[in-house]
Amino acid sequence: MSHNLLKLIMIVMVVFIVSACGKNAEPEISHGQHSTKNGDLQETTAAPDKLPSFLNKYPETTKIVYQLAAQNKDLMKWIPCYCGCGEEAGHQSNLNCFIKVTKSDGTTTWDDHGTRCATCMDIAIKVAQMNKDGRSANEIRSAIDGAYSKGFASPTQTPFPQ
């Protein structure tokens, strides 16, 4: 994915998502989906390359960010989120804003939290770009911590890369 495309995605996401994380109206739930205590909608698919159906109503840019999260899941588990989802939703990293878990058989449980949160989306895009640029997990973690340590919610309790 080109640097310019990632910049475009970031700009479009800011336009589409003008509010920070928060509770919206109750999500519409279909077969295979369930809602969590905090109102997040979750859906399980057969693999991380199979996006959840709840994304069907969102712009293509949202789907791309979810794809980026799946493609970078091994890195994103080391990156905290700064939107407050650690306390509100029990998330452990920015990955959990998009993917709750990927089991050993590839089965992936997705979370719709990221669809409503510009902070979550922005962090995921920055992580993907820095990873593409060849930065290490520790460098990316330090950059995200530095960029979001002031003016944002407390970070998730995410361990440092090993």
From TrEMBL:
Pfam families named in the record: PCYCGC
Domain of life: Bacteria
Protein name: Lipoprotein
